[in-house]
Write a structure and sequence with these properties.
The protein is an all-alpha fold. It has a domain of 137 residues. Helix content is 78%, strand content 0%. It is globular, with a radius of gyration of 18 Å. The relative contact order is 0.22.
Length: 204
């Protein structure tokens, strides 16, 4: 289909990768906890936008450039790590009653989630390695095939994000009445962001 070899396996693989815990999932949950369904959906669209940029950068051969220029790759990697760690530390150091680290306006959630996604240069290399696995060399239709894969990933990400947002909103409504639990979860989210930043910096 569309020049994609084993489209069903492609969809299943994308869903598996979406379910792996990471900064993107954390951004969706945190945004929903702070901004409700609107905030969570805005973050979902931010993740999709960031992914699309990375995917088309991979198609354009940016991955080859990064691999050929280790200094550029490392600089981007450290920038992403610093950004995630900065967000995490702000959450950890926030005092009770302080303004939320992730702003309430949906446009800010979109920008925040998009930046978190873009600040992972390894994702470009991942897409560069991932796409060829499902490209049918006989029925390949050039950019149309890559476009079909990109649209599929965007649609699956939106569906997955919607489910995650609704679940997170359901739980957040029940935790909202308990400030201590809410603050504890925010600290845990902060620790996770710092951890993701360290992991990215170490290149593992």
């Amino acid at each position: 289909m569309f020049g994609v070899a084993d489209y069903g396996a492609f969809v299943a693989t994308v869903l598996i990768f979406l379910a792996i815990p990471g900064p993107g999932n954390l951004a969706l949950i945190s945004s929903t906890g702070k901004g409700g369904v609107r905030g969570g959906l805005a973050a979902t669209l931010g993740v999709i936008a960031g992914d699309q940029v990375l995917m088309w950068a991979a198609v354009a051969g940016v991955a080859a450039l990064l691999l050929a220029s280790p200094a550029v790759f490392q600089a981007l990697q450290w920038a992403g790590a610093a950004y995630l760690a900065w967000l995490g530390l702000k959450m950890l150091l926030a005092k009770p009653g302080a303004a939320p680290v992730l702003n309430i306006q949906p446009r800010h959630y979109f920008r925040q989630a998009g930046l978190i996604t873009l600040m992972n240069p390894k994702a470009i290399v991942f897409y560069m390695a991932f796409f060829p696995l499902f490209v049918d060399p006989v029925r390949h239709q050039g950019l149309f095939t890559f476009a079909a894969m990109a649209v599929t990933i965007a649609a699956l990400t939106f569906a997955y994000g919607l489910i995650m947002v609704l679940l997170a909103h359901f739980l957040a409504e029940r935790l909202r009445a308990n400030p201590w639990v809410r603050r504890t979860l925010e600290k845990i989210a902060g620790l996770c962001l710092v951890g993701f930043g360290v992991k990215l910096a170490l290149g593992r």
